[in-house]
Specification:
With 719 residues, the chain is an alpha/beta fold. Helices cover 28% and strands 17% of the residues. A six-stranded mixed beta sheet has the order 9-14-13-12-10-11, sandwiched between helices. A hairpin with a 2-residue loop joins strand 6 (215-216) and strand 7 (219-220).
Length: 719
């Protein structure tokens, strides 16, 4: 038995022994995402590139969950871990099947490049729907729990390897990402852009971190000494492996121009701790080693890190010793998975407006329902990007038809093209308006299904991006959607607006004139079923906005400005259309007897927050208790920041006590030198079910309970 096969040794010892048997050339080819087989050592070919943002992607049939931004809208940490666990079960089941038939192609491994924990700082960014929204705390909590679900709880083996991406300070613009330099202050870096990555590394023990395309303060992220050596491995003691984003290293010399040759570029990446190359440019490591730009010891260390990951996945151990090898392919796309997916989709939907209790609709009082809009029967608007292939897709139209059956007639019109001014190319424009009016005339209620899909917002290079390499030019509904909404409202019939999108939209006219508005995100393959059941009152909506809905993009700073001033609920200067953390229900909740365990905070101390939450309405439902902290005497401090949340499920009439803990870091802020300071002075803690801003209070009628907390001494905390 070879030393690397000795399962009594540590994975590091075994990886070191195995890599020691490799030649220089063999080691180089192990640093590519399509790592070659080494038959003389019994090493199979392995492709490191796999995706699982909201379900196993790009490798055939798998459960397609709501897009990540929708998952975030559930504000539910426990659900996120469950989703991660279900995805990794399908991932293992598919891997076991693929290995059985010798399939080692791309998207067939156990190293999944998810989650995306970048901060959605600007609603125009096309990839924002891959994230968990604009808030560092929410993103941290959801990212940690998703990773824990993905990687499993076995003491020895990883279920799959997750990856926190894209490290760091990365959120557009997409069309210049290969040459763009994101300039960021130390304060914003540590206060906003790094917390989620730190939590994923230090709490969830994520196995992989992926670098970003852009530069940060002059350094390309995939070769950044500051990010990869000083912070990731230095401050946070990261012990896994780092991968580049795909073909990002060639940007060093082609886009960023910080190097002049491919050999210099790979040396910069490898020497600063990038172990794996998504692409093929690391083949230049052969020359880099020969020229003395990279030592063979540095290369060896990188390959050892990669092999520790493969060994933690059980790839080199006796199959019967790895518990996840027993997961059968029958687990994929099972009835249970579809039912779980539907339950998840139900938790993500946000009810934004419900004037005069327009919703829920009563099936028994309706004879004809009109369904109008370009997203009503658009499968692409269910799924977002980085998606798998579902065996069943249920659009909003199909969900409504299924729910109503033969009892109520459903009349449908596409209404308009998603972004053009006509559906048929040779028409005169607005070519479905007569049909829209006819459907409205016949209907007792009209459900307008508008918004975007991943052809309008997504990653640079995604097929079919209509706008700015995937970024949005503004926050408006595209094409003539607003005209169609106005025409529907002119009919005088009750109107429900359902928006499917992966980001915030601005619709001030609709907000004023449409009585009921729903944000459905990209709700997954079962999304139409979930939305239909919500519209007709089968359950109460419970989603909360993980991003701010602005009134206009004109109030935003320049897209290329990475300073947080003026951005997100933490720093914005205008009133929101709909605020972060906001969402209505069909039932009502009362949060009473809120208390804090102390009115003082100091270094090393913590404060317990308790309250009783009662479902005072007639529907079973769920509500999210949200705790915000504001530093009153620190110049430049955020308005307030989310620092605690708890999703609570309550039957009608039920009461539960909620307890949350705020430690000293919940009150601390970074200064301009990135020192984490707990400053002397007064703080406010707000305990409620929404933000303490006046817009949230006016929309919900709920004002969070406030407490004054004092800190007597300024002290520096460990960051």
């Amino acid at each position: 038995m070879e030393k690397y096969q000795d399962e009594t040794l540590s994975f590091k010892e075994r990886a070191k022994a195995l890599v020691a048997e490799m030649t220089l050339e063999e080691k180089v080819f192990q640093t590519l995402h399509w790592s070659a087989a080494i038959e003389r050592l019994g090493i199979k070919a392995y492709n490191w590139w796999n995706e699982a943002l909201h379900g196993v992607a790009r490798a055939g049939v798998a459960t397609v969950y709501p897009q990540a931004i929708g998952l975030a809208a559930a504000f539910d940490e426990d659900m996120m871990e469950e989703v991660g666990d279900h995805i990794s079960t399908e991932g293992r089941a598919k891997f076991n099947m693929q290995q059985k038939y010798g399939d080692t192609d791309i998207y067939k491994g156990l190293t999944f490049w998810a989650p995306n924990v970048n901060i959605f700082r600007d609603p125009r960014w096309g990839r924002g729907h891959e994230t968990y929204g604009e808030d560092p705390y929410l993103t941290s909590r959801l990212g940690v729990r998703f990773i824990e679900g993905m990687q499993g709880k076995d003491e020895k083996y990883l279920k799959v390897a997750a990856c926190a991406k894209h490290f760091a300070v990365h959120s557009g613009p997409e069309d210049i990402r290969h040459s763009f330099n994101a300039e960021v202050s130390k304060r914003d870096l540590y206060e906003t852009y790094l917390p989620a990555f730190k939590a994923c590394v230090t709490e969830a023990k994520v196995e992989t971190v992926m670098g970003a395309y852009n530069r940060m303060n002059g350094e390309p992220c995939c070769g950044s000494k500051t990010l990869l050596r000083d912070i990731l491995r230095g401050e946070w003691k990261f012990d896994g492996h780092v991968t580049s984003d795909c073909w990002a290293i060639k940007d060093f010399h082609e886009g960023h121009c910080v190097t002049t040759t491919p050999v210099e570029s790979v040396a910069l990446a490898m020497n600063n701790g990038c172990d794996l190359n998504c692409g093929h440019i690391f083949t230049n490591l052969l020359q880099a080693v020969k020229e003395g730009l990279v030592t063979e010891e540095t290369l060896t260390r990188a390959v050892e890190r990669l092999y520790v990951t493969k060994m933690r996945l059980g790839i080199f151990d006796a199959p019967e010793h790895v518990p996840y090898n027993t997961i059968d392919y029958s687990a994929v796309d099972s009835r249970e998975e579809k039912e779980f997916n539907l339950s998840v989709a139900k938790k993500t939907i946000c009810l934004l407006k419900n004037e005069n209790h327009t919703l829920p609709l009563c099936k028994d009082k309706l004879k004809t329902v009109g369904v109008i809009g370009p997203n009503a029967n658009n499968r692409k608007a269910l799924i977002g990007n980085y998606e798998g292939t579902a065996s069943e897709y249920v659009t909003v139209l199909e969900g409504i038809q299924e729910y109503l059956g033969d009892d109520v007639r459903v009349r449908y019109s596409e209404g308009c093209h998603l972004f053009k001014d006509r559906v048929s190319g040779l028409s005169q424009g607005n070519d479905r308006i007569a049909e829209v009016r006819a459907v409205c005339d016949e209907s007792d209620v009209v459900i307008a299904v508008m918004g975007l899909d991943s052809g309008l917002e997504g990653e640079e290079g995604d097929q079919g991006n209509e706008f700015a390499s995937g970024d949005k030019p503004n926050l408006e509904l595209p094409g003539i959607q607003n005209e169609i909404i106005r025409a529907i409202c002119e009919s005088g019939k009750p109107v429900v607006l359902v928006l499917l999108s992966g980001s915030a939209l601005a619709f001030p006219w609709a907000e004023k004139h449409v009585p009921a508005i729903v944000e459905g995100w990209y709700p997954g393959a079962q999304g139409g079923r979930a939305i239909a059941q919500m519209l007709f009152g089968e359950y109460a909506p419970e989603g909360k906005l993980p991003v701010t809905f602005y009134r206009t993009s004109e109030e935003l700073p320049a897209f290329t400005d990475y300073a947080m001033k003026g951005r997100t609920y933490r720093y914005m200067e205008h009133e929101a259309l709909y605020p972060f953390g906001y969402g209505l229900s069909y039932t009502t909740f009362a949060l009473k007897e809120a208390e804090v365990s102390s009115d003082r905070i100091a270094k090393g101390a913590s404060i317990k927050v308790t309250a009783k939450l009662t479902n005072t309405g007639s529907y079973d439902g769920a509500e999210t208790v949200q705790v915000y902290v504001k530093a009153k005497n620190v110049p430049g401090a955020p308005h307030y920041q989310l620092k605690g949340l708890k999703k609570v499920h309550l039957a009608a009439g039920e009461t539960k006590e909620v307890e949350l803990t705020l430690n000293d870091t919940a009150f601390a802020l970074f200064n301009e030198e990135a020192e984490l300071m707990l400053s002397a002075g007064e703080y406010e803690v707000f305990v409620g079910t929404n933000q303490p801003d006046e817009r949230s209070v006016s929309l919900t009628g709920n004002r969070p309970t406030g407490f004054s907390i004092t800190c007597e001494k300024t002290e520096r905390l460990e960051r």
